[in-house]
Amino acid sequence: MAMKKSWTVLAAALLATALLAGGCTAKKGAEDSTIRIGFMGALTGDIAMFGKPTLEGMRMAASELNGAGGVDGKRIEIIEADNRGDKQEGASVAQKLISRDHVVAIVGDPTTGITKVVAPIAQRADVVLLSAGATGPGVVETGDYIFRDTLLDSVAIPACIDYFVKDLGYHRVAIVTSDNNDYSVGLSQTFRQAAKGKGITIVDEEKIKDGDKDFSAQITNIRAANPDVIFFSGYYTEGALLMKEARKQGLEVKMFGGDGLFSPKLIELGGDAVEGTMVALGFSPEQASPVTARFVAAYRKSHNGAEPGLFDAQGYDAVMLLADAMKRAKSTDPKVFKDALAKTKNFEGVSGTITIRPNREPIKSPLALLEVKGGKYVLKAKVPVKMD
To answer: pTM, whole model, 2 decimals?
Structure first.
């Protein structure tokens, strides 16, 4: 009887082991049939306006790729996570995407600050990180697994300065920096450097903080300096309030900034005060190339006629760049396809023609300078960028 019981226990143990092994095999098999790409960005909170469209663009790219047979017969699966725009949460999300979800690449974060926190985590894990929005310095320097596909401030700002001086006659500039925002601090420094020797005089520099509501003192100082334009390097919320205060004090000059100002919220919050505001971007649906036109048409069809924005386009391009690198490398192993990604040249993205330089930084052309006109963003000029 005891022997029979022992054999029963042993049989049960063997069956459990077999089932566990079968379960592990099934799980591994499922993973082998898909390519998992993680999304890193905010889906809730103040900067969800950057994260949500990035994810939407990624979904569109994955759907298109999967509809065409995937990559080497494997389907793209987007693993979503919300970091709420918080650096600590960003680090936690990155760890989960890598250790729990076994992603081969992460697209994001759209912001410079969180990308800089996540980059060392991806680098240590040998997982490719491709930011579809971070434009500030100190990102790709982390290591050879770190990339981005966005138009860099160091490229966009000099091109805009040339256009402002030669075409618009702007020479006197007031700079406003949000000094608790990594993106803003870096962008202001980029502007200062790019302005040297270009006929630009910085007549005033003011500091604010993200979350501030009262800009009366700063606008008083700017008004006394009599600039031709205000360069604000921060985000749309403070930008809208800054311009409302400017109009309140009778200051009629326009504001210019980077993609941090690009959001419908700027217009919603600022109203008439932000009319004429200009932003430098790597994407515009106007005067589109054939590749961009197809993307815009597909987006409109699936979004009730709505226009795609910068982050939709860059999220889409990020997934397409990764897929292109995997195809060229004939591998979905990040240790292998990262080298192919680093050699990307003249990739026809929907946000422009993209080349990855030896330092893993992208160069893109042309630059789109958008202006708020009649309560919406319209193309003011397409500014050429040197592709060397």
So the answer is: 0.78
Within 10 Å of residue 69's Cβ, how many Cβ atoms? 10
> Could you tell me the domains of the chain?
35-151+288-356 (3.40.50.2300), 154-281+370-383 (3.40.50.2300)
Whats the size of the chain, residue-wise? 388
Residue 155 burial class via C-beta count within 10 angstroms: exposed 0-12, middle 13-18, buried 19 and up: buried
CB 249 within 8 A of CB 219: yes
Instruction: Measure the CA–CA gap between 327 and 330, rounded to whole angstroms.
Output: 5
Tell which phi-psi region holds residue 381, choosing left (phi > 0), alpha (psi between -120 and 50) or beta: beta
Q: In degrees, to the nearest 5, what angle opens at C-alpha 226 toward C-alphas 225 and 232? A: 80
Averaged pLDDT for residues 46-73? 95
* 230 Rama class: left (phi>0) / alpha (psi -120 to 50) / beta: beta
d(CA 86, CA 102): 22
Strands 128-131 and 367-373: unpaired
227 falls in which pLDDT band (50, 70, 90)?
Answer: very high
Which residue type occupies 73? G
For 118-134, the pLDDT digits (tens) are 999 999 999 999 999 99
> Which residues contact residue 136 at a Cβ distance below 8 angstroms, ignoring those fewer than 6 apart?
112, 153, 182, 183, 186, 187
